[in-house]
Amino acid sequence: MVRKLELIDPPFNSTVLDLIIKIDYLRKRELVGSTHPSLFFQLKHLFHILESIGSARIEGNHTTIAEYIDNEVYNNSTNKESIQEIRNNEKAISFIEEVIDSTPINRAFVAELHKIVVKDLEREGSHNPGEYRNHNLEITGSTHSPPDATIVNDLMIELFDFINNIDSEKYDLIKISLAHHRFVWIHPFDNGNGRTVRLLTYAMMIKMGFKVNQGRIINPTAVFCSDRNKYYNALQEADSGSESGLLNWIEYVLSGLSIEIEKVDNLLDYNYVENKIFIPAVKRAEEREVLTKDEAKVLLVAIKNQEFKTSMLNKVYKNKDSVKLSRLVRKLRDRKLLIPVEENSRVYVFSFISNELMRFVMQMLDEEGFLPLKDEI
Ligand SMILES: Nc1ncnc2c1ncn2[C@@H]1O[C@H](COP(=O)(O)OP(=O)(O)OP(=O)(O)O)[C@@H](O)[C@H]1O
Ligand SMILES: [Mg+2]
Question: Which ligand is nearest to the CA of 182?
Answer without folding.
Answer: 1
